[in-house]
Design goal:
Blueprint (H helix, E strand, L loop, with lengths): L38 H25 L3 H27 L4 H5 L3 H10 L5 H23 L3 H11 L6 H13 L1 H25 L7 H25 L4
Organism: Microbacterium album
InterPro entries: Ferritin-like, Ferritin_actino
Protein name: Ferritin-like domain-containing protein
């Protein structure tokens, strides 16, 4: 089982707290096929993750009154749904039933999404931007293990995710609100840990030996480098 982020006067002080928890470069060329999960697991997880991001974003749309924000969220949600459907088509082309391929991972990945939904819309926007970015990178790295199927999935995941408007909304908040900047920075650090745990758990061995660690180290190093660039783009330190 796979187990599974312009004030003229200073406003009144707020106490913002996190709610309690209940591009890849060389990494794409790292061959760690022996550690990769079977192709059904790879496809099921990749497809359900995109569906989960679509669900999270559409819930945010309903909860957001501002039209500008609804538009930004709708673009990202649409991109996630397109990726989900494209991976579902790949599953069907292999002669498999998509719901059956995804079902074993539904509970674990839903739990991950619940753990990374923030108490505020900006936290959840950041969650999608960071976790989807890191996991898309990770599944791109895994894709080289699956021949033509992997190449098709890599092509799907390489398509833009239309999250730039979300980035701009987050950046505006970070630049104008020091308290939210601190909160989002702390939230991002939590998200990284949770996301790396999912990536580790997706690999075939339950425990990685020293030789296995050496094989995957370049991938996780690249994941963190790409994450640092995303954080820089937001105006936050990784």
């Amino acid at each position: 089982m796979v187990n599974w982020f312009f004030r003229r006067r200073r406003p009144p002080a707020r106490m913002l707290r996190l709610r309690p928890r209940g591009d890849m470069g060389d990494a794409r060329r790292v061959d760690f096929e022996e550690l990769a999960p079977d192709v059904e697991t790879f496809l099921g997880q990749a497809a359900y993750l995109q569906l989960g991001y679509f669900e999270t974003l559409t819930r945010l749309i309903r909860a957001t009154p501002e039209l500008e924000e609804k538009e930004a969220l709708s673009l990202a949600a649409g991109a996630a749904l397109v990726k989900h459907r494209a991976i579902v088509d790949i599953i069907r082309d292999r002669g498999d039933e998509p719901t059956e391929i995804m079902r074993p991972f539904q509970d674990q990945l839903d739990a991950f999404r619940r753990a990374t939904v923030g108490a505020r819309p900006r936290e959840t926007m950041l969650s999608v931007h960071i976790t989807a970015g890191m996991l898309d990178d990770f599944y791109l790295a895994l894709a080289s293990s699956y021949g033509e199927t992997g190449r098709r999935v890599a092509k799907v995941l390489s398509v833009g995710s239309d999250r730039q408007q979300i980035v701009e909304l987050l950046h505006g908040t970070i630049e104008s609100d020091e308290e939210m900047r601190s909160l989002l920075s702390l939230w991002a650090r939590r998200l990284v840990g949770d996301t790396l745990l999912i990536a580790r758990a997706a690999l075939r061995p339950q425990r990685l030996g020293s030789d296995d660690e050496k094989k995957v180290e370049p991938v996780f190093t690249a994941l963190m480098a790409a994450h640092a660039r995303r954080m820089d783009g937001l105006g936050l330190a990784a």
